[in-house]
Amino acid sequence: MHTDFFAWLEQHKGREYDLHNDHINPAFVKMLKTIGFDKGYVRGEGAYLWDADGNKYLDLLTGWGVFALGRNHPKVRAILQQLLTRDLPNLVRMDCSLLSGLVAEMLTKHTSENLSRVYFCNSGTETIETALKFSRCATGRQGVVYCDHAFHGLTTGSLSLNGSDFFRSRFGDLMPGAQMVPFNDLEALEKALSTKQAAAFVIEPVQGKTCEVVADGYLAEAQSLCRKYGTLLVVDEVQCGLGRTGKWFAYQHWPEVEPDIVCVAKALSGGYVPVGAVITRPRIMDCVFDSMERCVVHSNTFGQNDMAMAAALASLYVIEEDKLVENAAIVGERTIKRLREISRGCPFVSEVRGKGLMFGIDFARPKENFKLKMAWDMLHKLNFGVFGQMVVIPLLQKHRILTQVAGFHIEVIKFLPPMTVSQEDMDWFLNAMEEVLTDTQRFPGAAWDTVTGLAKRTIRM
């Protein structure tokens, strides 16, 4: 490798898809090429991506929420560049890091005084694994209750709480004692908790795979049930936390709610260095780390590393100083309102839902219009869950807006704009959506030909 890293990298330009096909994940490469997503992006800045031909794209996928501050935020980058010029004593292990202490202080400034302890790790799924262990330790119980359509990660413990059989199948027995209940169903939740076997009830205030939002009053009642039956309330805010919904934490839309454990990640990284954090009550943390002998009974190699902590600290300051929580609330509300107005004219739209800058469109079989019902049925006989691509593909190919369906075999497209996004950018998106939704109603037509061809190719793959 040359000392000029980018000159060396330039020599390999154009090999990315071949390299991934040969050495990483050929099925993923085939999927990208099949739906025309093999753009080969060469630059990212703020809310935008550029391909090699100089075409500019609006990024509403944001790495599934990682780039909540936009790509390559200059303030976060400046802090990391400064850090790299110092020979800091990183990860001494037998010492306490000032950086991680400051991040913990700043995170807990935005919670209640009872949520004052923080455990750092490397990812969202690791925060869930931590929450599971902490809950079991604090309660002496083994069981965990979670919701249908939930997504909490793909390691063994978090996968055990996955509301989709698609992700769980073929991986054998998972964590025992996990019980699923319907989302927003208090009666089912009480039935599950009343056995007093559950250490934790784990829930996303806004579900990542469906953009379903907890009903008003639900979280407060769930909290009461948890306290009644001795179960800890764990809120997974890996995707919906740190300002995305228009509050610092999504559970704060309901002021009476105070969870026992809050999990965050994604946005905390600033899009630069992986990091996760578990915010909890002192009594829970003290139960886990209950003696000098057991002060490292739960740990990880790279947690609290200087680069991750600096990225997290810089990200929190940017969210505060640039008023990104407020921006998410204002721009998100306007966008969702306008999207609902646009969607009323499309018989395929079942619902527009979400909070702030985390929202989605749910599609369903039309209730009227025989021709469009027939088109829907024909497509779903070929391949269930492919309708969303009739919206996603033209958004990218014609309007240069990057997004994707929210999950496997569900007809939901999720949008995760960066919290720095402007109303002008969202108008770009809304105008494009109005045109694309209109095109779905032209059957037969080019949009239907494209998605039908895709469904047939997928069957042959």
Give the helix/strand layout.
Elements: H1 5-10, H2 16-23, H3 26-35, E1 41-45, E2 48-51, E3 56-59, H4 62-65, H5 74-84, H6 98-108, E4 117-121, H7 124-139, E5 143-147, H8 156-159, H9 165-168, E6 178-181, H10 186-193, E7 198-203, H11 218-229, E8 232-236, E9 261-264, E10 276-280, H12 282-288, H13 306-321, H14 324-343, E11 349-355, E12 358-363, H15 370-382, H16 389-397, E13 401-402, E14 404-405, E15 412-415, H17 423-439, H18 446-460
Parallel strand pairs: 3-13, 5-6, 5-7, 7-8, 8-9
Antiparallel strand pairs: 1-2, 2-3, 4-10, 9-10, 11-12, 12-15, 14-15
Helix pairs in contact: 2-3, 5-13, 6-13, 7-12, 10-11, 14-17, 16-17, 16-18
